[in-house]
Write a structure and sequence with these properties.
This protein has 14 helices and ten strands. It has 387 residues and is an alpha+beta fold. It has two domains: 286 residues, no CATH class; 78 residues, PDZ domain (Pdz3 Domain).
Length: 387
């Protein structure tokens, strides 16, 4: 019962944390800007405006439970002071509305930098206040786990919130650039020493291990990402980017061994982690700046820029970057020809589709009266027209 009471109390405190509402507000803003951009470029929204808000918790809740199980099960005790600074750092970074800055690596670095600034008189021997000094390894481990979750979320959920943007090429055509701006909110259970917490909240539930008292708190871990795909397909870009971030997280977890034996290496490890995290973003952004487009108008057919949810196109398994070559046996090169070819058999649609590896396949689907009149695809306009 004590554990249940503790978790219930922690959940109540989590709900009133201002970072939760700042994050949800930022998610609302990201959804609004995405829908506005989609309507500007295609005169239709691809995903619902609440997608970012729903996915902020829904997509990350399972990972939050896994991390909480690890942190509590392994007894990783993190000082309350450090968590307060992390909350402050998250709040400040959220107010900038730069979602790419909300990587756990940056949040932890800003929190530690703020603590060091407060205690600047103690340098160069400073490793944190008396409470922090004994928690260097748990901080590294939790940060590494958070980076692993960040990379996994990028890989697994990038499609929800990915939006196509028309961009004019040197030839005057409209090719497609894909933008991802997402944010996730993870309620992470953390074990903290009861001493400082009891001084502020004397009725907070606690448990005893050995001669020490501990409590469990729910900390809002906020993760944000921003990336653009142009030269390569979004699948390749975001899978590669996510894998790189996961690898960095694994390396950070492994580096906890170094910090355990040489505590003075703590700030070196964190500093290297920040540099490598920045380098990953720079490298992937630089790779996509080449003047070429993975999804661009093609003389072979209609290049799919996006597929609307719950449409015949989605049910047929059409993917962005694929090229529709024939519709009901008729060659097509633009959306007008697509519409005309669909009228050959208004109740059933047969497509010949070529993927970005130039492999051709056939697919078919019944068409109903309430379905989108162009089967639910958005195309890169081969004539450079902005609809």
């Amino acid at each position: 019962m004590a554990y249940l009471e503790m978790l219930a109390t922690a959940l109540g405190r989590f709900i009133i944390n201002p970072v939760v509402y700042t994050t949800l507000l930022l998610a609302v803003l990201l959804g609004y800007r995405r829908v506005k951009r989609e309507r500007s470029h295609f005169h239709i929204r691809i995903q619902h405006g609440a997608t970012e808000v729903k996915s902020a918790i829904k997509e990350s809740l399972g990972y939050a439970l896994i991390v909480s199980f690890i942190t509590v099960g392994a007894g990783l005790v993190v000082p309350t002071t450090f968590l307060l600074y992390v909350t402050f750092a998250t709040f400040v970074l959220s107010l900038t509305f730069v979602v790419a800055s909300l990587s756990p690596m940056y949040t932890v670095a800003l929190a530690l930098g703020s603590m060091a600034l407060v205690n600047w008189q103690q340098w160069p021997t400073y490793l944190g206040d008396g409470v922090i000094t004994g928690a260097l390894v748990p901080i590294v481990l939790v940060t590494g786990l958070a980076l692993i979750i960040e990379g996994t979320l990028i890989r697994k959920t990038y499609a929800h919130g990915l939006t196509p943007v028309l961009q004019k090429t040197k030839r005057g055509l409209h090719a497609i650039v894909y933008r991802l701006r997402k944010i996730w909110l993870l309620p992470i259970a953390i074990v903290v020493p009861s001493g400082p917490l009891q001084a502020v909240l004397p009725y907070w539930p606690q448990f005893t291990l050995g001669a020490s008292d501990f409590s469990i708190v729910l900390v809002p871990l906020v993760i944000g990402t921003a990336m653009t795909s142009r030269r390569r397909m979004p699948t390749d870009v975001f899978n590669g980017y996510g894998k790189a971030v996961v690898t960095l997280g694994v390396l950070l977890v492994a580096s906890a061994v170094i910090v355990y034996y040489v505590p003075a290496m703590f700030y070196v490890v964190i500093g290297i982690g920040v540099v490598l995290r920045m380098a990953l973003s720079i490298v992937f952004v630089w790779r996509e700046r080449a003047d070429s487009y993975a999804v661009a108008p093609s003389a072979k057919g209609i290049m799919i820029a996006a597929v609307l949810p719950d449409s015949p196109a989605e049910r047929m398994g059409l993917q962005l970057g694929e090229c529709i070559v024939k519709v009901n046996g008729q060659p097509v090169t633009n959306e007008d020809e697509l519409y005309e070819a669909l009228q050959i058999n208004a109740a059933y649609c047969k497509l010949e589709v070529m993927d970005y590896r130039q492999e051709v396949r056939q697919t078919q689907q019944a068409i109903f009266a309430e379905d989108h009149y162009r089967i639910g695809i958005l195309a890169a306009d081969p004539h450079g027209r902005r609809r």
